[in-house]
């Protein structure tokens, strides 16, 4: 992946680091309403999936499946939502969100439904470590 990769400032503010897979940086959204993982391919300047090489695209897809399976295993959601939007944060990133019947936005989309509900710091760290362990990653404490 790109040596000059830099994470968009909005993602830095809104997420906690889980760790790095071979292709993607793995983040945990700070909104405690939903188990919400964000994958950011470490490809400088990428805004959309079609801008990845075939090799990068396959790697990103594989990591998206890996993260999806980990989220399902950890949280047993009613439904897993996976999306690539980028209307606010232009840097290519993929949302993997565990949804539950009866969650605060169910069955609608989560975006704009409610203001984010922050994790207590110790719970955010524990959730990030739990995800890192499920993905076989080392976390920067």
Automatic annotation (TrEMBL):
Domain HIT: start-end pairs: 37-106
InterPro entries with a match to the protein in the record: HIT-like, HIT-like_sf, HIT_Hint
Domain of life, per lineage: Bacteria
Alphabetically ordered keywords of this record: Hydrolase
GO MF, any single term: hydrolase activity
Matching Pfam families: HIT
Protein name listed in UniProt: Putative HIT family hydrolase
Endoplasmic reticulum found in the keyword field: no
């Amino acid at each position: 992946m790109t040596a000059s990769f830099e994470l968009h400032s909005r993602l830095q503010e809104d997420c906690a680091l889980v760790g790095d897979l071979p292709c993607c940086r793995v983040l945990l959204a700070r909104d405690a309403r939903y188990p919400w993982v964000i994958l950011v391919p470490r490809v400088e300047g990428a805004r959309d999936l079609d801008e990845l090489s075939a090799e990068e695209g396959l790697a990103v897809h594989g990591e998206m499946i890996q993260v999806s399976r980990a989220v399902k295993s950890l949280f047993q959601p009613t439904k897993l939502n996976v999306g690539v939007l980028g209307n606010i944060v232009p840097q290519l990133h993929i949302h993997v969100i565990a949804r539950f019947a009866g969650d605060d936005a169910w069955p609608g989309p989560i975006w704009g439904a409610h203001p984010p509900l922050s994790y207590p710091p110790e719970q955010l760290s524990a959730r990030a470590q739990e995800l890192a362990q499920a993905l076989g990653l080392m976390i920067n404490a």
